Every structure is written in structure tokens, then in C-alpha cells.
Amino acid sequence: MTGSEELAGRFEEHRGRLRAVAYRMLGSLTEAEDAVQETWLKLSRAETDGIHNLGGWLTTVTGRVCLDLLRSRAARREEPMDATPGTFVPDPVLRPLSHLDDPAEEVLRADSVGLALLVVLENLAPDERLAFVLHDMFAVPFDDIAPVVERSPAATRQLASRARRRVRGATPSAEPDLGRQKEVLDAFLAASRAGDFEALLALLHPDVVLRADSGALVRGAAVSKAVQGAEAVAEQAMMFARFAQAAELALVNGSVGVVNAHGGRVRSVMGVTISDGRITALYILADPERLARLEVPGRAG
């Protein structure tokens, strides 16, 4: 085995962790893969003799790559192209609902990150997001994060602390039991299919928020939106009741959600937050370009 082959093998041992870091940083599966590939390129060009902790080195390099992408993204959002702020829905990670009793599936679910948290992370400043993700989610020491954000360890600690407060204040409580989640979503789909407005209202929290991300343009019109309030969200569900006929349940970022597929193509994915038997938030991705890149497991039900 050549030295480059051995290095590639060692890199592959860390790929899963690096992808997890990049996904939490970027909320985009495609960009996460690109960031991991960029990390490999940097490793292949580096003098590796001085790298004593390869995993730590790769994690911080991935963080730096993601930070550059976030800063570039923030600069682009200052332009008028982002006409509907607050509607971004991260790329969902889909898994079949049929393997709930599989111990391996439980491990994967425990390691997943919910769409609600990713939405909150999207509202952090790039430096705050990096400090929070690397330290709080991946236990990277502040001494290692500080050079990436070009601050002292103490200032980096403050970044993470500020981000932590914002995350705690904005992340809704959620029902952990998948069986109870499934009951609520089964009832939601049944009410949608039947056009039962009152049943929908009963399943929605009065302050429920719906985020619908359909991409920049669909047929020349911006259609991404944010809707708040049970009646407004129920009205949206009634308008799209016909799509509920083809909807199937799936695991969406470790929680029960909905995949809407029709004509052999995924038309939308919906993640939800459920608390005390009612839906408090819905996250719908309907961007055709991003949906086309998703890995959809078989039939989602």
C-alpha cells in the first residue's frame, strides 16, 4: 500500500464524522459533501508528519471550510435575491419508517439532528454557529476552535455561550416517542385527506408555525412562505389536501415526518415538531432542485 492510499484509508475512517460536522454547519447535504471533499484535498496537499491528531485536524479544517461557505452565503443574502427571509428549510435526511425496532436504526436516530435545531442554527452568525457546533456537538476544545475564528479562546467561549442561549431559547420542546409522533401524523393526514378543518385545528397548536421552502422561483413566482397560527396553517393543509393522498410517513431527521411522492418523483418532504399531542411546527421542503438530490429510501412508508 502506498503512502497516499494509506492516507486515503485513514481519511475514510473519519468521513462520517466530518459529514456530520458539515451538515450541522451548513444544513445542506450537497454542500456538506463538497466541504468534506475540500477537506480531503487540503489533507492530500498537507505535510502530514506534523499532524498528531488526525481526527481533530480534519474536524477543524472542515469547520474552517464550512465557515468560509457560511460567510459567503451571508454576503449573498444581502442581495435582493432573498425575497422571503425566514423560510429556509434545511435538506432533510430520510430513512424508512419500517425499521423502528432495529437497534442499528435506533443508533442512527440518536445521532441525528432535528430540522428544528438546524433552522435555529441557520439564524446564528457564522462564527457563533462554528463555535457551538464544534464545541457543544463534537467536543472540540476552544483552544482548537479559536484560531479558526481568529479570536482568543475566551472570546470563542463567549461565542459558543451566546449561541447556546439562543438555541435553548428558540428550540421547541418535542415529543420523543416515535409511536406518539406517528399517531399525530396519521391523524393529520387523515384529516387532510377528508378535508376535516375542525380535526386539523384540534391537531395544531394555536401558535403553530409552518415554513415552506420551494426554492427561489417556481414558474416565475416566489412561493416560499412562513405561516403562523392554527387556522392559517389548517387552511394551507386544506388547499393542498389532494397531495395528502400520495403522502407516506418516513423518518425525517430522526422523527416521524411525511414524504409526498407522485409520478415517481418526490414533490415535498415535511418534518414536524410535536409537543403534548399537537403539532407546533411544520417544515416543508418543496424545492425541486434540492429534492432531486435527496436519497429517498425505497418507498418511505
Strand content: 15-25%
Query: Mean of residue pLDDT?
Result: 87
Low-confidence stretches: 78-85, 217-222
The topology string of helices and strands comes to: HHHEHHHHHHHEEHHEEEEH
Give the helix proportion (percent range).
Answer: 40-55%
CATH architecture classification name of the largest domain: Up-down Bundle
Biggest sheet, spatial arrangement of strands: 1-4-5-6-7-2-3
Query: Which superfamily, in CATH terms, is the homologous superfamily of the largest domain?
Result: PhyR, sigma-like (SL) domain
Using the coordinates shown, work out and report the CATH topology of the largest domain: Butyryl-CoA Dehydrogenase, subunit A, domain 3
Domains counted in the coordinates: how many? 2
Written description of the protein model:
Helix 3 (54-76) packs antiparallel against helix 6 (126-137). The longest helix has 24 residues, at 3-26. The protein has 2 domains: 3-82 and 115-170, Up-down Bundle (Butyryl-CoA Dehydrogenase, subunit A, domain 3); 178-292, Roll (Nuclear Transport Factor 2, Chain: A). It is 53% helix and 16% strand. It is elongated and about 65 Å long. It has helices at 3-26, 29-45, 54-76, 103-110, 115-122, 126-137, 142-149, 153-170, 178-194, 197-203, 230-239, 241-244, 288-292; strands at 94-95, 204-213, 225-228, 247-252, 255-262, 265-275, 278-285.
